[in-house]
Amino acid sequence: MSNIKNNQESDAAIEQSFLLKQVGYNCLQAYLKIEPDIKKRLIRYQLKPVEFTVLSLISANPQINQKRLGHTINVSPPNLATLLDKMELRQLLVRKRNPNDKRSQILELTEKGQFLFGKARQQFEKNESIPNLSNDEQKQLLRLLQKIFL
């Protein structure tokens, strides 16, 4: 008899009406739903999402410095330094003294970094659709999310 009760409890919907009214909860749940697809696309290039982000920003912003990059992706200087160290060891990027400000370093992709970013980028350009959303809904979602952080 207790097995029947347990099965009924596990089939019942979980009450989450309060949380479903919270923007943060909804953003987190949406991210958790789409993150596995992002990781699956990047794993074949041995890239983590944050590494792909770094490669993308350096590619699109020649002469970007570490400070601006860290601020843009909201990563603390010590954590960014560790991330960049690892990416430099993999020969994906190089840090160079900024000729205009000797206190800062500019970031550049290596040939290997450019190639890897180009291949990984193709994975997202082909088909980066969000389940259950039309193209128009996806564009609207992007606009609304960007209003929060841009």
TrEMBL record:
Please give the SMART domains that the UniProt record associates with this protein.
Answer: HTH_MARR
User: Which Pfam families does the record associate with it?
Assistant: MarR
Q: Which residues form a coiled coil?
A: none
Highest rank taxon of the organism: Bacteria
Q: Where is the HTH marR-type domain?
A: 20-150
Q: What is this protein called?
A: MarR family transcriptional regulator
Origin species, per record, is: Neopusillimonas maritima
